């Protein structure tokens, strides 16, 4: 894709610079929007990551430790302490997991539309804490003695309190942390990336501790805690840790940015689909699909808590879930405005926009549906995988055992190893081999196929385990201390491959799914899309419970007496059917393929943005310049442009106001806005761009200027020529180091650094302390006007008053030095115009903004010999490509610039490229119609 943008509207019948220079406009322009929440933070912190988000990270670590501490012990507690069957324990465990991943929908809705994130987290955190306390109470031996009471307390605590509490927290904690970083501050944006890494580390640390120490404590107790009190101690620790989580969150209360609830995205999604269900078949079936998913969950809960009718209820749950998946897969491919297309005369514009946005969410539903079966495979870790492990040889020494739940630690540990391995070695190797990065479609297909293979592998593994024979010592059968089940003669370590296999599937499917659910929907629906992602995980756990109940007769408490492999073979067969359907449907939709626009695949279709600066101007009589055109027109209408015409015919065309309607922008401000950085927020003057583009370093506190070599009539103090000569480079470049050598008598602590830029321009940087860019320049902006004196924009600002005095003295000293320079003396003797003046304009410090890649997710290059544009690119950390023959003026080599851009995108190093063409703009400024038109 190639874009042409007409910028810097030039009236060639008037002075071009009056519209071109907007330094004074933006230097004095105040952002009309109110101060942001980050600007109003009572105290500024050098490290938001630790000073503010440290409390959030501690909260997440404690909450995840509490969650996984409970999760690892549930199955054995339900079987050994509550006396439930293996089928009931596994089914209820999966049902609870399903609730945990379903409740984030509720949490996201309440936080985004009602309470805000902080209040939602604290409120449901208290509910979570109550649930932990109830579980600890139910696990106390004195309460377990009253079985019915213990069961009631346990179910209320687990399902009502923790099920809803952890789900509501899950969808909001990471977002609350991310909210603390100012998106307009480059250093805070970098800290945010680090925050996500530490957040993930906290999750895995909590899981590692829980599956390590707490798993052992639950089963064996400790030196101070009897084994009978193991589960009570484990759940009590989880309660205390959750209390610490809430205390940690509260300690940072005064430091948090608490954004108010403003989004109605989820309500909009529901409202659009609900309103259209009677007018559109696709919308109707999608609504029914969601309702059937919920109905399936209800059937499954009933089947899990009742013995009678369990098979019938589980079959109903499976049937409704299957129909829901079919509805989402089939009708997610269709348009929800297809049956009665939203006619212009029947529908307001805002409804069309809302329907179009919801359509993008609908389009991800087929992909989401195919991940449900994968969710069923993933949920085996804490359910049936654990059952198999507990009937292997768990002995670590002749007298100690490894708790079966402890093997769950290999899942997070494997992920920690696999993610950098895939990103750093496997994916790059794939790209080098096949000359393109792995697509989202390919990674997900591989993950789904591996998930199906794992189910068959585990089924065969279970057959082998069962045939290995029971373990005996001294004639007595050895039993697992956690569940009481007999152990077989197969070492526990042989179970590790299935845990690692599931972790690899997570890396291939879940990581890709996060990207898909983020990139494929509009900004305001991204949180809703992630909630849908969690909902499909919930439905995966629901399917696990359905399978466990349906095959209950083959899953006795002692697996040696059953055929658990039947269930794994059934899940594996369904998973094979699922991956085949996935590949067919995704290919048909071209979803996640090379053309889908996925983040990873943008490298296969990079964007090159070609901007022809100054291409637009007024309609005028061209006939005196171009005899073939007798009627008035613009230079663009007159010029012969077959290539641009062909691109325009093949593309989309429109008008753009770079900043705001009616504002004639200069190149710097227009480019800032086009790159996504509003000048009213970020502009600090064009001087820093010119200086950096010329190759000058800028440290914090330096003030730079865009400067012209000009001619001053010293007798009248009038600027006779603002541009001394377009060909100044041919004779005057040696004046730049001379200007950079001047000393300011009244300001010995201020250094002046000068470097040649292009044509008659140079960049100058003032280096010293107490400098400010809040001053005016000395350039009158038109010929035959007096040289200006710099003044402070805010006279009450001492640094601005000081800096204006520095600039005025520098201007005077430079005039004196240039007037005596031998080059100028010789030119005057020859009757030529001397360059005896440097005009200062656009004072500015280096802008402090997130770089281009952090803002847009695209690695970018720039080909722009014009210093001011190159400096802007450098300020945004875009790679500046130097091209031989590219001069930034009339003499530039356009072919070399085009070839260099093509070379950059062929190498697939970049997602975005910007090519700037300046020669047309120069012709406009010089009012040289014959040069501009051909």
Structure explained in plain terms:
This protein has 934 residues and is of the alpha/beta class. Among the domains are: 2-30 and 606-681 and 849-932, Alkaline Phosphatase, subunit A, CATH 3.40.720.10; 376-521 and 557-603, MFS general substrate transporter like domains (Growth Hormone, Chain: A, Up-down Bundle); 684-844, no CATH class. It is built from 35 helices and 15 strands. The strands form 4 sheets. Strands 7, 8, 9, 10, 11 and 12 form a 6-stranded antiparallel β-sheet that branches. Strand 7 (703-713) and strand 8 form a beta hairpin. The longest helix is centred in the N-terminal third of the chain and has 35 residues, at 186-220. The two termini are 25 Å apart. The relative contact order is 0.10. The model is unreliable at 1-25, 27-33, 341-345 and 595-603 (pLDDT under 50).
List the helices and strands and how they pair.
Elements: E1 2-3, H1 17-20, H2 23-28, H3 48-51, H4 53-81, H5 86-115, H6 117-139, H7 141-144, H8 147-170, H9 173-179, H10 186-220, H11 230-251, H12 265-276, H13 281-305, H14 310-331, H15 349-363, H16 365-378, H17 384-389, E2 395-397, E3 400-401, H18 410-434, H19 440-467, E4 472-473, E5 476-477, H20 496-519, H21 526-550, H22 564-589, E6 607-612, H23 635-638, H24 642-650, H25 667-674, H26 679-682, H27 687-694, E7 703-713, E8 718-721, H28 735-739, E9 751-756, E10 761-767, E11 785-786, H29 798-820, H30 822-829, E12 837-844, H31 852-856, E13 860-863, H32 867-875, E14 879-880, H33 894-906, E15 912-917, H34 919-925, H35 929-932
């Amino acid at each position: 894709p190639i874009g042409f943008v007409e910028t810097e509207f030039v009236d060639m019948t008037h002075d071009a610079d009056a519209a071109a220079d907007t330094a004074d406009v933006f230097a004095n322009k105040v952002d009309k929007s109110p101060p942001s929440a980050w600007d109003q933070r009572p105290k500024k912190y050098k490290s938001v990551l630790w000073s503010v988000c440290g409390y959030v990270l501690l909260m997440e670590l404690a909450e995840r430790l509490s969650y996984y501490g409970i999760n690892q012990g549930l199955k054995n507690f339900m079987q050994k302490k509550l006396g439930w069957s293996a089928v009931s324990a596994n089914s209820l465990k999966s049902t609870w997991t399903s609730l945990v991943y379903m409740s984030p929908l509720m949490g996201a809705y309440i936080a985004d539309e009602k309470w805000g994130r902080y209040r939602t987290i604290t409120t449901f955190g208290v509910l979570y804490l109550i649930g932990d306390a109830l579980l600890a109470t139910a696990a106390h031996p004195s309460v377990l003695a009253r079985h019915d009471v213990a069961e009631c307390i346990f179910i209320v605590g687990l399902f009502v309190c923790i099920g809803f509490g952890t789900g509501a927290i899950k969808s909001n904690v990471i977002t609350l942390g991310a909210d603390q970083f100012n998106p307009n501050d480059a250093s805070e944006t970098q800290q945010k990336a680090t925050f996500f890494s530490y957040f993930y580390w906290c999750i895995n640390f909590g899981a590692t501790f829980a599956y390590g120490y707490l798993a052992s404590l639950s089963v064996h107790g400790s030196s101070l805690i009897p084994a009978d009190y193991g589960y009570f101690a484990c759940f009590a620790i989880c309660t205390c840790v959750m209390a610490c989580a809430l205390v940690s969150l509260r300690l940072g209360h005064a430091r948090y940015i608490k954004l108010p609830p403003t989004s109605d995205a989820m309500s909009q999604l529901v409202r659009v689909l609900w309103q259209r269900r009677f007018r559109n078949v696709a919308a109707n079936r999608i609504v029914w699909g969601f309702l059937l998913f919920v109905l399936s969950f209800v059937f499954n809960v009933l089947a899990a808590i009742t013995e009678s009718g369990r098979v019938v209820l589980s079959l109903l749950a499976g049937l409704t879930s299957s129909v829901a998946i079919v509805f989402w897969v089939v009708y997610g491919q269709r348009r929800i405005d297809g049956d009665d297309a939203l006619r212009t005369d029947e529908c307001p514009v805002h409804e069309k926009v809302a329907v179009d946005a919801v359509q993008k969410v609908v389009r991800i539903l087929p992909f989401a549906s195919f991940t449900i079966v994968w969710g069923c495979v993933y949920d085996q870790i804490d359910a049936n995988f654990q059952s198999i492990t507990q009937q292997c040889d768990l002995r670590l020494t002749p007298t100690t055992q490894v708790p079966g739940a402890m093997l769950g630690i290999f899942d997070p540990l494997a992920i920690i190893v696999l993610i950098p391995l895939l990103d750093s070695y496997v994916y790059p190797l794939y790209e080098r081999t096949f000359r393109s990065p792995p697509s989202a479609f390919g990674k997900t297909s591989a993950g789904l196929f591996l998930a199906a293979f794992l189910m068959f592998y585990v089924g065969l593994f279970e057959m082998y385990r069962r045939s290995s024979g029971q373990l005996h010592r001294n004639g007595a059968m050895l039993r697992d201390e956690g569940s009481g089940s007999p152990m077989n003669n197969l070492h526990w370590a042989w179970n590790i491959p299935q845990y690692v296999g599931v972790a690899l599937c997570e890396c291939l499917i879940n990581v890709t799914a996060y990207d898909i659910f983020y990139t494929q929907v509009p900004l305001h629906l991204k949180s809703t899309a992630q909630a849908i992602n969690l909902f499909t995980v919930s439905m995966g756990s629901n399917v696990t419970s359905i399978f466990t109940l349906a095959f209950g007769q083959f899953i006795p408490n002692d697996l040696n007496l059953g055929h658990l492999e039947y269930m794994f073979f059934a899940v594996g067969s369904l998973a094979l059917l699922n991956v085949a359907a996935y590949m067919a449907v995704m290919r048909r939709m071209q979803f996640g393929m090379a053309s889908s626009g996925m983040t990873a695949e943008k490298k296969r279709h990079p964007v090159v943005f070609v901007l022809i600066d100054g291409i637009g101007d007024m309609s005028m009589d061209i006939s005196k310049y171009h005899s073939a055109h007798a009627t008035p027109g613009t230079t663009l209408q007159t010029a012969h442009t077959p290539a641009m015409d062909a691109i325009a015919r093949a593309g989309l065309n429109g008008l753009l106001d770079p900043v705001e309607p009616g504002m004639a922008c200069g190149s710097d401000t227009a480019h800032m806005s086009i790159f996504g950085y509003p000048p009213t927020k970020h502009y600090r003057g064009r001087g820093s761009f010119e200086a950096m583009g010329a190759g000058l370093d800028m440290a914090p506190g330096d003030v730079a200027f865009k400067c012209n070599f000009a001619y001053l009539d010293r007798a009248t103090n009038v600027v006779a020529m603002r541009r001394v000569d377009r060909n100044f480079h041919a004779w005057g470049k040696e004046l730049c180091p001379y200007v950079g050598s001047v000393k300011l008598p009244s300001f010995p602590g201020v250094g002046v650094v000068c470097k040649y830029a292009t044509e008659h321009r140079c960049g100058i940087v003032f280096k010293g302390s107490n400098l400010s860019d809040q001053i005016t320049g000395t350039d009158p902006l038109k010929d035959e006007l007096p040289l200006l004196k710099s003044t402070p924009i805010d006279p009450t600002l001492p640094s601005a008053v000081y800096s204006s005095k520095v600039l005025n003295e520098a201007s005077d000293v430079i005039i004196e030095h240039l007037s005596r320079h031998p080059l100028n003396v010789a030119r005057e003797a020859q009757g030529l115009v001397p360059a005896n003046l440097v005009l200062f304009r656009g004072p500015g410090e280096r802008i402090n903004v997130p770089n281009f890649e952090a803002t847009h997710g695209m690695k970018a290059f720039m080909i722009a010999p014009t210093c001011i544009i190159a400096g802007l690119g450098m300020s945004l950390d875009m790679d500046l490509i130097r091209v031989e023959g590219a001069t930034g003026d009339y003499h530039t080599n356009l072919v070399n610039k085009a070839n260099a851009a093509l070379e950059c995108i062929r190498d697939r190093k970049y997602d975005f490229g910007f090519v700037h063409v300046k020669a047309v703009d120069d012709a406009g400024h010089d009012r040289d119609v014959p040069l501009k038109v051909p």
